[in-house]
Specification:
The protein is an alpha/beta fold and 255 residues long. The protein is 42% helix and 15% strand. It has an eight-stranded parallel beta sheet with strand order 7-6-5-4-3-2-1-8. The structure holds phosphoenolpyruvate. The site of phosphoenolpyruvate has 13 residues, from strand 8.
Length: 255
């Protein structure tokens, strides 16, 4: 059976004391619940300077796990100001978000760069949370499936079967990110089912059945249960609501 996930993307928010307070609250509220085999895998993705402190507070049980939001595609070298995948792994990260629409848009990350980053992440032992999703214009032009199909083909499906097994996919419609507009559970389900079909075509039915596909875009404690109840929705990538301990914990308990 495929793994359920709730990943929190803190983006460029929180200072060290704020991050420590939020993490302690989350850990305290969840007690031992995450140790149950039925619990979703929780991943917390703070900004770089907060990784070690958050990692220290979540401990080494494996759930929650630590994730990062970005890294440089090269292994190491003269890239002032950049952070490598190996560094992230060495401070306890197990996951990294890749292809987030904010990085595609503000930092011009394209499919070619993402393909390189995927290889670097996997070589360093990080599991990518690979994001895809359409703009409002694309949806309104009825091109959502073609657009997402291309993002998957050009960005992701070059991986070998063995590499692909490590990937978690997040469907994040751009028009729903940080806007308070959530995709309906039906809209989410139809895109998730489409993504699974594409995986079956590129790899095989087993890979399609085993891949966790998360929904992201204004998911919150009120709508999580319905979204997570869809057959092809295996959890969420949560932005704004992951910054509030009670909301984040409620989302985790929505399964
Ligand atoms: C995100 O940016 O990954 C995200 C899903 O944000 P939000 O939940 O705030 O829409």
């Amino acid at each position: 059976m495929r793994q359920k996930f709730v990943a929190g993307n803190w983006k460029m928010n929180l200072t060290l004391p704020e991050a420590q307070a939020l993490t302690s609250e989350i850990v305290h509220m969840l007690h031992d619940e995450l140790l149950s085999p039925a619990a979703p895998q929780v991943v917390i993705c703070p900004p770089f300077p907060l990784l070690s402190a958050v990692g220290h507070l979540i401990g080494d049980s494996g759930n929650p796990a630590l994730g990062a939001q970005n890294f440089h595609q090269k292994e190491s070298g003269a890239y002032t100001g950049e952070v490598s995948a190996k560094m992230l792994h060495s401070v306890g990260c197990q996951y990294v978000i890749l292809g987030h629409s904010e990085r595609r848009q503000h930092f011009r990350e394209d499919d070619e760069l993402l393909s390189q980053k995927l290889k670097t992440a996997l070589a360093a032992g990080l599991r990518p949370i690979f994001c895809v999703g359409e703009s409002l214009e694309t949806r309104e032009a009825d091109e959502t499936f073609a657009f997402i199909g291309k993002q998957l083909k050009d960005g992701l499906f070059h991986l070998s079967n063995e590499e692909f097994e490590k990937v978690v996919i997040a469907y994040e419609p751009i028009w729903a990110i940080g806007t308070g507009k959530t995709a309906s559970s039906q809209q989410a389900q139809e895109v998730h089912a489409f993504i699974r079909e594409q995986i079956a075509g590129a790899y095989d039915a087993q890979a399609a059945a085993n891949t966790s596909i998360l929904y992201g875009g204004s998911a919150n404690a009120q709508n999580a249960r319905e979204l997570f109840g869809q057959p092809d929705v295996d959890g969420g990538l949560i932005g704004g609501a992951s910054l509030k301990s009670r909301d984040f914990v409620e989302i985790i308990k929505s399964f």
